[in-house]
Design a protein that fits this description.
Elements lengths: L1 H17 L4 H5 L17 H22 L3 H26 L4 H41 L4 H8 L1 H4 L3 H54 L19 H25 L1 H27 L19 H15 L5 H19 L5 H23 L4 H21 L1 H4 L6 H22 L3 H42 L8 H27 L3 H13 L1 E4 L2 E4 H20 L17 H26 L3 H17 L2 H16 L7 E4 L2 E8 L3 E5 L5 E5 H6 L2 E3 L6 E11 L4 H13 L11 E8 L2 E11 L3 H18 L3 E3 L1
Helix pairs in contact: 1-8, 3-5, 3-8, 4-5, 4-8, 4-9, 5-8, 10-11, 10-17, 11-12, 11-17, 12-13, 12-17, 13-14, 13-17, 14-16, 14-17, 16-17, 17-18, 19-20, 20-21, 25-26
């Protein structure tokens, strides 16, 4: 009706525009005017042509705007794809296993489809509004006085007959296109409204099933176990299993297609990681250093890179697909555990390996019963048998697994959860709460196996980092084996927090409480709070501190990825690299703090007040702190000293160990660490022995007695110094005679050596000179 009314309005407008009454100009009695026609205001033909051209351009643009663009066709394609997804999900809802995992997947997918339908409906409304605006342009034509005057004047209109015919043709084509597209949009809108109703009804069903699995824990869902008296023919059981397999396959296949984009992204990321690890391993093997990996206590990367990278990818897949259907997720879990078994082979003891395989057998049986066997006496008894075996396993056999793990802190809690959930599962199964019992059983086994997988994940990540450090050091010519154990203990601390979070999320998701926990936590963190005129949320504050913590971690650990560690050989210090690292750390810190301030939601006007108060504080008591901070930035960019330089300042001397934004640490020759504020470094004279190179001119005074000549002495000294690898022979040594008498010579020898090995070079030079002159029968003293 609406479409028909609009079309009639447009036809009426067309009639008004092009078929004005012919009698108007014929019956009207013209007024006689006395003034001259020379000064009469008359419309010329060119002005009429301009009015017709303007109307023509408007209709041309209206036709182009009314036509569907590529975005509209993409929208229609999305509507079609949404329909296919909705049909699949509604069909699978009817016969799939009603466990928590499947219902969570249905809920997530339906909520996303609901959001897509809202967006599609809004897009259709925008296009309807666009068509209404196009219709408004035709109405605006009536305000063109020249065009309306021409339409009313039948005699003059005959002069523009050809132009009006073309204008009418364009009008009819535009009207036809708009009518057609209006009908398409109305049809699409009707479809989206119907789908929204279907999605809302399906969500009510799914949410009801999820609610039943979490409430009324003591409510009898099925008859008590001792009240069941069912006997199902074997043929019927086989048919039920086949039907369940088909349905679960369809649900898993649908979810796989639904998550194809994310899974491809994960595969791409894992491919890049595999390439990165294989490149480092290949470099070490090519240069004959691959055997040294055993010295770093590598357990997994020294056996190849594909399986360790697969372990990382599957762990991420399990955590990133929390609401996947049961078959999809349990296949991921079993695939992960199978790959772990390959890694553990020939690494674990026979007893530990036997207990691990027994655990996998129980888990596989549990998954099969949950997915493909109807709830009945057999299934419930089988679950109880598995729970009993699980309790015994947790009390007796689980200790052998703990001894093989890299991190054992979480394993204690995993054991407690494993035993407790199996015990509760037996209780709920006996009293008819079968869905809750099944959920607790699966969560018990997943919590235990997942902590094993996450422990392996942490070890693999640390091995990748140590591999990167060692490879970078080999490329720089540093073959020294560093203290990898203390480094691993330092690096694993932030990763332990991440792994703990992943473990808790997996357990909460299996218990069907993660969604409610996340919603409650989100409501708590997003609730606005007021202190005076300042409004803030707890989430902004938490995000502020998290970003700052991450920024400090990054600036602390970024050096490790460039092969830098604390026991670095001072002669191989790459000063340019250290300068880049200092600038990188500064950028990370400043960027982190700016991002944290932006994430905190603090208003800029309030921030200016805070900065003003900080300025007053600086003026009163923080001058030294700001002075040292600014001096640190100047030292980083001006580079008068760099890490590894040997410097003297006031009465202190030593090698620069580290440079921070506030202080600089210097290692003194006696082993002391001197901490100097950056302001002092910038305001005092500094002697930098290694600003240009790492060589120092040293002196050795010697006395020679015997029958010889200065030429022989010079030749002996030069020959002895050239035999020393510690002496830099690119710069010619200098020989000076302080005193000469018959058979007695006092000689001063100056030569260049590494400033880091000055004492060693002087000592070696004295020993070689002594041996050389003694071999010639001369007396030598130094």
């Amino acid at each position: 009706m609406f479409q028909k009314r609009n079309s009639l309005c447009l036809l009426a407008l067309l009639f008004a525009l092009f078929f004005a009454p012919l009698s108007y100009s014929q019956t009207a009695t013209p007024k006689k005017e006395n003034r001259s026609k020379l000064f009469e205001e008359a419309t010329t033909d060119s002005e009429y042509l301009m009015a017709i051209e303007k109307a023509n351009e408007m209709m041309e643009s209206a036709y182009n705007d009314a036509d569907f663009d590529s975005a509209s066709h993409h929208l229609f394609g999305e509507i079609k794809r949404t329909q296919s997804k909705l049909d699949l999900i509604l069909a699978s809802l009817k016969g799939a296993n009603p466990n928590v995992r499947n219902q969570q997947m249905y809920q997530t997918v339906l909520e996303e489809i609901q959001q897509q339908l809202d967006e599609q409906n809004a897009a259709i409304n925008l296009r309807n509004e666009k068509l209404e605006k196009i219709k408004g342009r035709f109405i605006e034509l009536r305000k063109d006085k020249n065009l309306m005057t021409l339409l009313k004047d039948t005699i003059r209109r005959q002069q523009f007959k050809k132009e009006f015919a073309n204008l009418r043709k364009k009008y009819l084509s535009t009207d036809s296109l708009m009518t057609k597209n209006q009908g398409i949009l109305n049809k699409k809108k009707r479809i989206t409204v119907q789908r929204k109703i279907a999605v809302s009804n399906a969500l009510l069903v799914v949410e009801g099933k999820l609610e039943k699995s979490g409430i009324s824990m003591l409510h009898k869902e099925y008859p008590f176990l001792w009240s069941i008296n069912d006997s199902v023919p074997k043929k019927t059981v086989a048919q039920n299993i086949s039907a369940k397999i088909v349905i679960e396959e369809k649900v898993a296949a649908y979810y796989f297609s639904y998550r194809t984009g994310g899974l491809i992204t994960l595969l791409l990321f894992m491919g890049l990681l595999a390439w990165y690890v294989s490149r480092n391993l290949k470099y070490l093997k090519t240069n004959g250093h691959s055997e040294n990996l055993s010295l770093f206590n590598f357990k997994y990367l020294n056996r190849g890179f594909l399986i360790p990278v697969a372990v990382i990818g599957l762990n991420i897949a399990v955590v990133s697909n929390l609401f996947a259907p049961a078959l999809f997720l349990e296949l991921l879990q079993l695939l992960l555990l199978g790959i772990l078994t390959i890694l553990f082979k020939n690494k674990w003891s026979k007893v530990a390996m036997k207990n691990w395989l027994f655990l996998l057998g129980l888990f596989f049986t549990l998954c099969f019963l949950d997915l493909f066997i109807e709830v009945g006496f057999f299934q419930r008894c089988a679950f109880i048998a598995i729970n009993v075996l699980g309790i015994r396993y947790g009390l007796v056999q689980i200790k052998t697994l703990k001894e093989q793990l890299y991190i054992q802190g979480f394993f204690k809690w995993a054991s407690i959860i494993f035993i407790a959930f199996n015990s509760l599962s037996i209780l709920y199964n006996l009293f008819g709460r079968v869905s809750l019992s099944n959920m607790l059983s699966l969560t018990a086994f997943i919590s235990l196996t997942q902590i094993v997988a996450l422990s392996v994940l942490l070890k693999i990540i640390l091995e990748i980092i140590i591999l990167q450090i060692y490879t970078t050091r080999i490329k720089r010519g540093i073959e020294k084996i560093f203290d990898h154990e203390s480094l691993s203990n330092t690096l694993k601390k932030p990763f332990v927090l991440v792994i703990g979070y992943m473990w808790v999320v997996v357990i909460a998701s299996n218990l069907n409480v993660w969604q409610s926990l996340r919603t409650s936590l989100g409501a708590l963190l997003s609730r606005p709070n007021n202190i005076g005129s300042i409004t803030f949320t707890l989430g902004n504050i938490v995000l502020f501190f998290i970003i700052i913590w991450i920024a400090h971690l990054l600036q602390k650990y970024v050096a490790y990825f460039f092969g830098e560690i604390d026991d670095e050989n001072e002669e191989n210090v790459n000063k340019r690299q250290h300068s880049k690292l200092l600038i990188t750390r500064l950028i990370v810190l400043i960027g982190g703090y700016l991002l944290a301030v932006a994430a905190s939601g603090m208003p800029l006007d309030k921030l200016s007040i805070l900065l003003g108060a900080l300025g007053v504080g600086v003026g009163l008591g923080l001058q030294n702190v700001v002075n040292n901070f600014v001096s640190g930035i100047i030292l980083i960019f001006d580079k008068p000293i760099q890490i590894g330089d040997v410097i003297e300042i006031s009465s202190e001397s030593g090698r620069v160990k580290s440079m921070g934004l506030r202080t600089t640490k210097i290692n003194a020759p006696n082993g002391a660490e001197i901490i100097i504020p950056n302001g002092n470094l910038l305001s005092q004279n500094i002697t930098n022995w290694t600003y240009t190179d790492n060589f120092k001119l040293v002196e050795v005074s010697i006395d020679i007695t015997g029958d010889t000549t200065p030429d022989d002495i010079n030749a002996t000294i030069m020959e002895a110094l050239e035999s020393l690898s510690l002496v830099n022979t690119t710069k010619t040594p200098q020989i000076f005679y302080n005193a000469i008498s018959e058979g007695k010579y006092k000689v001063l020898v100056k030569f260049w050596c590494s400033i880091y090995r000055t004492e060693e070079s002087i000592s070696s030079a004295r020993q070689v000179l002594f041996s050389s002159f003694k071999a010639k029968g001369l007396n030598f003293s130094s």
